[in-house]
Amino acid sequence: MKRKAKKRRRTGLWIGLAIFALIACMVGYMTLRANTVVLKRATVYLGELPPSFEGRTILYLSDIDLGGPNTPDRAAGLVRRLQALKPDMLILGGDYTAHSLPQILNGVDGLTEDDLAARDRFFHLIADFDAPLGRFALAAPEDGDGLYQLLDACGFAMLNDSRHLIELGDDRLWLVGLNKNSENVQAGGKLFRSGECVVAVADSPDCFPVLNTVEAMDGGRWVDLCLAGHTHGGQVRLLGRSMLKLTSLEQQFLHGWTRETGVPMLTTSGVGCEGVPLRLGTEAEVWLITLTNFEA
Question: Which member of 41, 61, 95, 167 has the greatest number of CB atoms within 10 A?
Answer without folding.
Answer: 95
